[in-house]
Specification:
The protein is built from five helices and no strands. By secondary structure, the protein is mainly α.
Length: 118
């Protein structure tokens, strides 16, 4: 029996941020593709549907859908516990520190970046 696609849930602000990435003329095409994958996943599309719509391999969709959910779950476990930050600036600093730590210790071959939605 095939594995069910990972559920992706985003806030309105997160969806708006990804939508902006897809519309920016200077966004890297790989980043735009990943944003399209996540946005389609939020709408409940299957991996196969997303792959057909975007003209890519279903394994690519599965990979990026799972990576997106994986990063968010790591952030939730490591950073976003009640009382772990004092202000939005503190939260932003902790997220940036986590991204730096992740990129230097765990990111192979993918590195995460932060462009400042907070």
């Amino acid at each position: 029996m095939p594995k069910r696609a990972t559920t992706v849930v985003l806030s309105e602000k997160e969806q708006e941020g990804l939508l902006q990435i897809t519309k920016r003329h200077r966004s890297e095409q790989q980043v735009v593709l990943r944003a399209h994958i996540v946005l389609a996943a939020v709408q409940g599309s299957s991996n196969a549907q997303i792959a057909r719509e975007l003209g890519i391999n279903v394994d690519t969709v599965r990979l990026w859908r799972d990576r997106w959910v994986g990063l968010l779950s790591i952030l939730m476990r490591k950073l976003l516990k009640r009382g772990n930050f004092l202000s939005l600036d503190d939260l932003r600093d902790q997220i940036l520190a986590f991204i730096n730590y992740y990129n230097h210790t765990m990111a192979k071959p993918i590195k995460w970046t932060y462009t400042g939605l907070i």
